[in-house]
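Kindly inspect this today.
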Amino acid sequence: MKLPSHDAAAREVPEDRSHRVMLPRRAPKAPLRQVGRRLLMALLVLLATVFIVWMDRAEYHDNADGRVDLLDCFYYATVTLSTTGYGDIVPYGDSARLLNILLITPLRVVFLIILVGTTLEVLTERTREQFQLKRWRKALRDHTVIVGFGTKGRSAVQTLRATGLGRERIVIVDPSSKVVDAAVAEGFAGVVGDATRSDVLLRAEIQRARQVVIATQRDDTAVLVSLTARQLNKKANIVAAVREEENAPLLRQSGADAVITSASAAGRLLGLSVHSPSAGTVMEDLIQQGSGLDLVERPVVKAEVGRSVRETDDLVVSVLRGHRLLGYDDPEASPLQSTDRLITIVRATTAEESDLPGGQPVKSTLPGTSVSPMRRVDE
C-alpha cells in the first residue's frame, strides 16, 4: 500500500496556520462596540481634565488675555492630553503645577493608552493566549486525541461525550483550519496540522494521552498516524478506522489496539437490516451511546465475585479476563473474579427517569457508569 508523507487535505493548510493550537474562547465583542467604548473612555478622561483645570483656573495664565475661561479649559485639556503643548496657556501657581503632576499627567498616560489601545489589545491577546496555552498544557493529562473531525470523528466525539468525557479532555487534530475552527466553536481544543508528523501530535500532548482515536479519510494516512502515535506513546489505547478490510492487519501492526472497518461494518448492518429490520434497529441502538440500550464495559463489583454470569444484576454479553474475551456462555466465564471486567447491555437513564418526585432514585446506576442495569437488584 502506498504511504504518502501527508494527507491530501494537509496540502490546503496555509503556512502561517499549520501546527497551531487553538483553545476554546469567548466570542469577541462587536468592533463598533469596542470603538464606542474606547471613545467614551477618552471623552471621560477629557472631561475629567477639563474639570480639574476649571476648578483651579485662577492658577493658570493665558498669554492672549491673561484669564482662562471654559473654552480655554477645553483647549488646554486637548493640547495637554495629546502631548502637543503649545505653551500659550500654562499653570503658574503651585497648586496648578501640583495637580498637573499628580492628576493630569496620569490622565495623559491613560489617554495615550486608549489611543493606542488596538495595538496594546493585540499584544495583550497574544500574551493571554500564550498564558492559557501554557496552563492548558500543564493541566492536560489522560485526555483523548481525536485525529480527524469528519463524520467518523464527530460520531466518536458524540459517543465519548455521552459516556461522560468532558470537553476539556478532548483534543481535535485536523489538517483543515476550518474544521478545527468548528471544533473550537463547539468547546474543544484543536490543533491544525498533519497528524502524521510527530511535532503536530506533540502539540496535542499525545505523549500524555490515554486514548487516541484515528478517524482520517484515507487508510494510508491512518497507518502513518498510528505508527507516529505509538512511537510517541507506548501505553495509549489507539483505536483506528479504515475503509478497506484488507488494510486492517497493517493498521494493527502499526500499533493500533482496535481497528474498525467502516465499510464492512456498514455493510454487515445493512445485510442484517435486510434479513431482520428489528435486529438492525437494535444493533443501531446499541452502538448509539446515551439513548435506549447501550453496551457498557464495567468492573465486577464485590457482591458479584464468585457468582456466575447469569446471577449478575444486568445482561452480560462477554467477560474480559486479562487479555481474553470470554462469551457469556463460556464455562470458564463463571465464577466471576474480582479482576474481571464485564461487557453488559444496559438501558441509559434519561434526565426524566433519574429521580422520583420524592428525590429517591428510580434505578441504581452501574459502577463506573451513569446508566441503569437491565434488571433491578431486588429482582
About this structure: The CA atoms of residues 153 and 215 lie 5 Å apart. The chain has eleven helices and 14 strands. Residues 2-17, 350-379 have pLDDT under 50 and may be disordered. The longest strand covers residues 341-348.
